[in-house]
Structure formats: C-alpha cells, structure tokens
C-alpha cells in the first residue's frame, strides 16, 4: 500500500516512502514500486501511469496518472516547467547565509555511473534556489526549489556548496547502513488535467525527519 495524499478520477498524489522505487527496475526483485502499487490500488487505471520520478532514497510527493490523456497532460506540465516543486533537506554543517542560489551545470560521470558531477563546460544548465528553515546544532534544515530537473540535482548542488545532504551515500556520507537520505519532496503544485485552465492544485506534506 501507499499513503494517499489526494485521489481524483484521473490522477492520484501519493507520499512515497524512502527506499521505494518510483518505477520498476531490472530484475524480479525490483518490481515493487510506486507505479505497481498504484495499479494494485486503482485497478481501473489505464495507459502509462508515470508522470515524474523521485530517487529511490528520496521520500515525498508524486503524482501518478490514471489514464493516458491525464499522463500526457501532466507530463507536458512537467516538461514545460509549469509545475511547482519544493523539497526539504537536512544538510551537513551550518550554512553561512539565510538563502541563495546554486547555478552549476551537471552531467553524468560516465566512468562512475550513477554519479553526477558539476561540469561548467559539458554539463546541462542546472539552477536551484534555497533558504534556511532552521539551524539544528551541527546541521541545517533547508528548503530547496529546483528550477531545472536534472538527475541528482539537489544532491549534487548541496555537495557542491560544501553541505551534502545527510545520509547521502554518493555525495556525502552514510553513518550507518540503515541511515536514510534526508531529502523529502514536500510541496507539489500542478493543474488538474480535467480542468487545465483552473488554478494550480497545491499539495504539501512534511518529512518524517
């Protein structure tokens, strides 16, 4: 099962737990995912379900289409950057200012897949705004707003400014095997595919960290 945040006739918004894939992976042991669970919970769903993804280690809001036309409309909103997203993260150390932006191009490191690196020459343009929510002893709680949607963008950008996300095994450090990545998709806003001329539907859910 999945925690349902909102269920409509043509889409559903769920709160993905950390450690669950967004879509099936390769092999029979990687078929459990958001898409397969939604299909079990909403057996009338048809056509492609997947609109966007979160990293397996990231928790938070995902919208899933329940018919092909809704999937096309929602996917178009993501592609044209009409969707609003925000994340909450705990990062290592005390960030020295209250807000800022990270404008650093990113590309895949082909020699160390799935690792991504900042590369101002060959990387894809990547922009993230952030602001401090709280200082917590030796760490900082940040709100990230990505203006592009690159793979691992927030994780790479956080490490790039010297404050990797806590529990990140690729770009930071994981203190013990069961420690989760402290990154959560907390806010999501998009237009209802049944009424695209209406205002944005807004959803939010706080992280469990």
Give an account of the 3D structure.
There is one protein chain. With 209 residues, the protein is an alpha+beta fold. The protein has 2 domains: 80 residues, Pseudouridine synthase, CATH 3.30.2350.10; 98 residues, Pseudouridine synthase (2-Layer Sandwich), CATH 3.30.2350. Helices cover 13% and strands 32% of the residues. The chain has 3 helices and 11 strands; from the N terminus they run ββαβαββββββαββ. Strands 1, 2, 3, 4, 5, 8, 9, 10 and 11 form a 9-stranded mixed beta sheet that branches. The longest helix is centred in the middle third of the chain and has 12 residues. The chain starts with a strand and ends in a 5-residue tail after the last strand. The mean pLDDT is 95.
Q: What is the residue-mean pLDDT, rounded to a whole number?
A: 95
In N-to-C order, the SSE pattern is EEHEHEEEEEEHEE
> Tell me, what's the shape?
globular
Parts with pLDDT < 50 across at least 5 consecutive residues: none
Largest sheet: 9 strands, mixed
CATH architecture of the largest domain: 2-Layer Sandwich
The count of strands amounts to 11
Q: Helix count, per DSSP?
A: 3
CATH-assigned homologous superfamily of the largest domain: Pseudouridine synthase
Give the proportion of residues in helices: 10-25%
The CATH class of the largest domain: Alpha Beta
- As a percent range, the share of strand residues is 25-35%
Rg calculated over all Cα atoms = 17 Å
Indicate how many domains the architecture comprises.
Answer: 2
What structural category characterises the helix and strand content? alpha+beta
CATH fold description of the largest domain: Pseudouridine synthase
Cα(first) to Cα(last) distance is 21 Å
